[in-house]
# Entry
Amino acid sequence: MGGASMHDGPTHLVIVGLMGSGKTTVGTALARRLGLPHRDSDVDLLARTGRSARAIAAAEGVEALHELELQHLLDALRVPERSVVSAAASLVDTVTAREALATPVAFVVWLRIDPATAAMRARRSRHRPGHESLTVQAARRDPLFASIADLVEDGTDDPGAIVERVAARWQAVRAAARDASG
# Structure
């Protein structure tokens, strides 16, 4: 698959949301549905460092983890080929990430979820650090997610239904960009 042109609309479909919102589940299925590669922050960090996000935070601190997650996003957005990116929730806290996600290369989907449901889901996962309650995170991050989202989806909905709606919107946005370019 060759690189996308500017006239094809966004290059990267980026999934954001709280830990436990379904970013990896939806991102994996969406990439499969669209025939695109999937970049996942947790998976890629583990492959790059040999450690989970929780282990990185324990050994080097949460700020070091967040810096690695930011670098993952910036690296993913620089790739000229289209992809689906499941981004770390912490990214929305940084101006650099929000600015990068506001560029034309990114189409951002926010999987909105209530903190109690996210916490219940996140308890099943041992790879993420639990340094701050999801209620506190949601209070700070939800307005930021809303400010960068091109599309908002209910993270408690059926993942297959989310994938179909997002895929249809992604294809419509890209078609509209092609039509507008000539």
Remarks:
- Helices lie at 23-34, 41-49, 53-60, 62-78, 95-101, 115-123, 134-148, 159-180.
- The beta strands are 12-16, 38-40, 83-86, 106-112, 151-154.
- DSSP finds eight helices and five strands in the chain.
- The chain has one domain: 6-180.
